[in-house]
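=== RUN LOG ===
request id: a7f3
mode: sequence -> structure
chains: 1
length: 252
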Amino acid sequence: MKVDILASGSKGNCIALTSQDQTILIDAGIAKTKIEKRLLDVGVRPDHITGIFITHAHGDHIKGLPLANKYRIPVWASEGEWKGISGVDDDLCQVVETRFGTYEPVQLGRISVYPFGVHHDAYEPVGYAIEPDEGDRVCVVFDTGKVDKAMLALMEGSIYIIEANHDPDMVEASDYPISTQSRILSDLGHLSNQQTAEALQKLIQGRGERIYLTHLSSKNNMPALAEMTVKAALKQRGFIEGTHYQLEVVSE
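=== RESULT ===
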């Protein structure tokens, strides 16, 4: 699976995942024109996108959805998140369905997409596991205040694209209002470096997995700190970066 992170952070999030000749987007949180340019920069034609999957309806994840209308790309989101999305043509709106409380997988060409619930202050936010007919299984988790057992059960894969948003001490020392600090640090906020590291400790098996740390706060985190925290946690399990796994920190 080819991973192209077109944008990551509070200013916008958008990931292109390509398996063979099929590409899907996870979120479209930057301007349509920027998505088009960045897709072309990585060798993907915008009119070849076969689907867009939205994690939740905050602006930094849906700003570029006019792309869907221009290129007639179907858009999937949970029923709750469609409450916060407007402007997508009706025939392109697809609902991530649930059955007996579990999200149904979406089969799109040669790619299967498995949604799962996450914890964020949105209507019905989700993460996605993406499994091509051939190749690596990818797990994408952006905004969530915690990682629980149900999430871990669906997050197993070979490629992890996961937020490492903040360092709690930096948040508490910031000039953010107390209400904003509390939101970030809550179970409906964002993952800290340590929370991300603890989740990866449970997921990584030392089989050459690829990890992308994303959605770093520009004010309350540092790429080197996020990297160090994850590496230290995985070293406790005997895993060394470059030998047992690969790590990339994606900042704004």
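=== NOTES ===
The chain has eight helices and 15 strands.
Residues 127 and 239 are 26 Å apart (CA to CA).
=== END ===
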